[in-house]
Amino acid sequence: MRKSHKLAAAVASIALGTTPALAQTKASEPIKSVVLVHGGFVDGSGWMDVYKILKKDGYKVTIVQNPTVTLADDVAVTKRAIAAADGKVILVGHSYGGVVVSEAGTDPKVAGVVYIAAFAPDKGESVQSLIANPAPGAPVPPILPPKDGYLFLDNAKFAASFAADVRPDVAQFMADSQVPWGVEALAGAVTNPAWRMKPSWYLVASEDHMIPPAAQRQMAARAGAHVSEVAGSHAVYVSKPAAVAKVIEDAAKGAGN
């Protein structure tokens, strides 16, 4: 090829953004959008301190308010949040929110999935099936018998089981402001788990009395997740926001490479 033709081709390549250098830069741009999904019995307000850290560090954060009536409804709400986010998304779920992000995380805009002391079900699994046969000696969450198709935790046992390391007045507020969790949501099964096709991260809460830490480690290993661990209760996203935010930011950097 003559020099003039090579020059013209190079100019055209630059104009179209197809040079190897430009393509590499584009591919390695950091992910700056995060979608946070809460679990059962609570709403999205518990993410406040994690939200503040991520915002301070330059992330665009959306907090999903799940109805927690059915898995299908929660996935639909989450997918709307993903669609509205700028660019690629890191999708984060706590507790039952891990089921939601496992189902919603197959969305093309999701670059990575983060589990915070969460259920990480495989195809056909639900919270109901995952908790059906607890290991001997494992803590039993104080879930009251369903009323009108909804579940609550025993108010008097909420702090000890869900939020043992949260400031007592905050833990009591969480207990008194419980969101009804639909039995249908509990039974909602995942069809195609995101962790089978997207990179995943998992933060184990080693003092969790809702989802046994051993079960968390098992689900994280099965998912092939990048695993970290912190001494925290099930409400680790409230009590240890810096540790939670770090895992999310690690995912944003790792999934963007």
UniProtKB/TrEMBL annotation:
Record InterPro entries: AB_hydrolase_1, AB_hydrolase_fold, Sec-Metab_Biosynth_Hydrolase
Keywords, in A-Z order: Hydrolase, Signal
UniProt signal peptide: 1-23
Superkingdom of source: Bacteria
Transmembrane annotation, as ranges: none
UniProt key word Ribonucleoprotein: no
A Pfam family that the UniProt record links to this protein: Abhydrolase_6
AB hydrolase-1 domain residues: 34-246
GO molecular function, one term: hydrolase activity
Record's keyword annotation contains Hydrolase: yes
Coiled coil: none
The protein, known as: Alpha/beta hydrolase
Organism from which the protein derives: Sphingomonas lycopersici
